[in-house]
Amino acid sequence: MNFLQRTPFVRLLFALISGIVAFQYFDIFKITRLAWLLIALILIAWSFWTQKSRQTYRLRWLFGAGIFILLFLWGFQLAKSAHQKSIFPYINTKAVFVGTLSETPVEKSNSLTCKLHVTSMYDSINFVKINATAILYIEKDNRAKSLKKGDRLLFRTTFQRPPRPLNPESFDYATFLQRKGISATAYVSSQEWLRTGNHQRLSLTSLAEASRNYLLQLYRKIELSKNEMAVLSALTLGYKDELEPELREDFSYAGVMHILAVSGLHIGVIYMMLQLIFSMAFRRAKSKILSTLFTLCALWLYAFMTGLPPSVIRATTMFSLVAIGTALNRKSQIYNTISVSAFIILPGNPNLLFDVGFQLSYTAVIGIVYFQPKINSLFKVKNQKLKWLTDSMAVSLAAQVGTLPLTLYYFHQFPNYFLITNIIVIPLASWIIYLAVGFLILSPLPFLAAIPAFILKHSLWLLNTIVGFVHDLPHVVSVWHINFPQLILCLLSIISFCFYLEYKKFGALFTSLCLTLTFTISHLLISFNTFHTQQLVIYADTKNTHIDLIKGFNHQVYTTDSVSAVRNASGFWKSRKLNEPKMISKTNSSFIVYNQQKILILTDSLLHRKTTTLPFDIDILIVGNGLKFRTSEILNCVHPKICVIDQTISPWYAENLQQFCLENKIKCYDVKKCGAVRMLFSTKTYDEKTTHISAKNKAFR
User: Fold this and answer.
1) What fold, for 94-201?
2) What gap in Å lies between CA 675 and CA 694, rounded to an integer?
3) pLDDT band, residue 136 (cuts 50/70/90)
């Protein structure tokens, strides 16, 4: 019996996932889907009709093909329904809305971010009922800080679609929100909203959040530092709102960011602890079912106390299935169990498939299940202490191999000291979880609870100290950017190699090597193209101006804010394998010559109230830093071949400048409309025919 026959849910899950993914890239018409549904039903009926004939074995694929099509169509419809629910019906409409906060507001530097369920809209004519979810940014003041989940608001604003990314390789916030069921955002000042009451309904999620908040209050009774409290709440309860960016970076660079997201590791530790406790309490064989029942109840109680986040739900579902299989004395096929858990979770929210946490969680578990035994087999250690060390190394290495392609694709970096750090940190994190559970159990008895609280405080200090020490080591991370085709090549190469390890087929090894070679060549081609490219890039930024002059792997950036430049452009630099840039921070205008191009970066009043009898001819004019003086003053002094208006320029001024360029037959590009502008130059002298300008974000990518 082969792998797919032993794991039927792997095939079923593949069909469901195929339908969900297909919706993202293809628009399958309803009539086509109905035709496929009819074909699936015919195939299934035909398979039953041939059961008693001699052709049963030869036509056994009919039933499987019919089920595959049905699940594919189901996945497609699930994704389509989720997308339709996320559509906000009244975009760019100034009106009065009514909504209820569905989550506790998150405080930012200048506003509060509120996720709310919009129920109705009033305009000058109509009253319309709405059923949609949106993000509302409320101006921060004392009244806004008092808002809580369930508050009902009456506010006047204009909802807009989240902005699409204007810079290459930048985070697509609009798609991120859409896959969370949100397609509209708005800002409201403190004078434009009113709290009309609290209509929080009693629900499982609200009770879960309340229980988590209660446990957080117990933690705050321990005299912990800000970082210690942030790590403890994230490690044990999955509450990450208090994690500072610097602390996140420390854990990410050390290769242990996964311990701050309650998932398989944490649920596994709790599961083993519960198994030990209840197996001692119910020692008789007949009590095995009762022990499993108590374990499941305690496991889901812990999930409830963490607030029921998706990562905890999927991990708890997986371990629940393992526990049930163990209680029924059935040999659990772990791959089947993993597939069942995903098959249960995805229909509730098909967009979870595109969640980074969801993907990393499952690939880590699969990596541990498959690679850990093979890594352990390489080290035959009899000493129990050394065996514990090699087992820890094997688990960490297996998880990293499983998640490596996704880690490089999403985060573009690899922690070099992950193996050493995980050997120390994972046992310490497990110890902290045990201490936290002990503290919470003993919290009604403050005198006894003080003992685990004292040890817990020092354990957290040690954990943060170790992570901080690793972060400060030289060469702590390796930067490695891969694109989506390279991700697919990497995954297929690993799968082919695993197939070779299982079945010793030379064809699988040859395929893996060919895919690896193709992956390497693609990286070399990117480096080759970068080395032979000279280009000018004007990035999009609402507050600052950034101009990047690139020649091969080296480049220099003229910017009004270097920190903002790194935030907006680092993804593009990594994707092109560029070296660290030379930052030239300037708020005043600059005239430069690059590749025989005369370029004027106009960021101040250099040409204000200036006149000339003959305009100075230049090749490229870049207008930025929010300039507002008259366009005639600029273009009466200089005569450019190309004019670029960056995102800092106000819409009315950009419109005037574009109109003036149109009248004078000057090519004009508005970064706010077309995205970051990229100009590729010939390595020879300037020739407009050999200069390629990419001002569309898709082309830029």
Assistant:
1) OB fold (Dihydrolipoamide Acetyltransferase, E2P) (2.40.50)
2) 9
3) very high
